[in-house]
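Retro notes, structure queue

What went well: the backlog is down to a handful. What didn't: a couple of records were mislabeled last round, so from now on we paste the full input next to the output in the thread. Example, using Alcohol dehydrogenase from Candidatus Epulonipiscium fishelsonii:
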Amino acid sequence: MKDFNFKIPQTVEFGIGSLKKLQAILEENNSKNVFLISDRGLEKIGVVKKVLDILDNAGVTVSSYLDVVSNPTVDNVNECTKSYKDSEANVIIALGGGSPIDIAKAVGVLATYGGKITQYEGAHIVPGPITPIIAIPTTAGTGSEVTASAVISDEERNYKFSIFSYNNIPKYAILDPELIMTLPEFIAAPTGLDALIHAIEAYLSTAATPFSDAMAEKAMELIGANLRQFVANRSNEDAACAMMLGSNFAGIAFAWARLGNVHAMSHPVSAFFHVPHGTANSIILPTIMEYNALADNGRYEKIYNYIKTSKDKTENFVPEILISEIKKLNKDLKIPASLGEVGVTKDKIEVMAQDAMKSGNVLVNPRKTSLQDMINLFEKAI
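Corresponding output:
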């Protein structure tokens, strides 16, 4: 067994109604001036007000930035950083899916160390601890509340880049399943699949360890048994709890094992064609599972047993059985069958393939991948 290390450098609060623990966290840290980062969608449905009411009761000064967009941009980061500095707050509360939490991480870096956010592109460039972040996820998908990455779109380059540093991990995470029980189906399905893909790619990664495997396996168990039920009825409390916790465990898994070709490919798809991250990943997954099947060492069958709908014992398992089950899952959750169906065109294949090859995730994909392989994979997915 190869050497590895891990740490869980934060406090995670989980449970129905755990949002109310925000006040105690602020009091514990003597936080009197906070900065809230979220988006207009959550403001519209009243989730932002829930948090503002708690902050009002806590008697703290609050400033906010609510203009975070899907696939957040460098401009988004710069605007939010300016607002944060003007507020003179010393704690960031990130409320939302991956986008507000990623913005919060980027703001935490710039507010602490200055410069341009593109200077921190890559791995382990952030020099030290950043502004404390309290992450409150409102989707069961990204796991960003426990991961080391912030993913930002550079519109000048049509490129999504990652800032990977364990300094980025929020100090606190509050996992309240009530916050995902009002999600619309069109968000619950791709974000839930995204969480499952995090677990699958971490599990298949060549950088996987017994620690990441434990997190990934439990994530697949929770998500596999509850994803369909949750999408069918988001008010199903047990399914919501399982999805919220499964997403969190999947995030921990890939924080330490990285991901693979699915995520390497989805980032340029989102950068060039603005396809939502979870949707892009879900569409690409069957193509990559087919490609990686040659490298399977028995883990495909384990994944299948977590996500299959049949209770019967599977005889003479082959990887194609898992791939068929994934395609069926996508179809059940109304995920388009190809990238072409969401507007991705072949004229960008070569540049997207080049961008995908820059991802560190390609290096830990279970099957080696050349630039020509990547071009072929995009052609197949489109």
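Agreed that this is the format going forward. Reviewer comment attached to the example: The radius of gyration is 20 Å.
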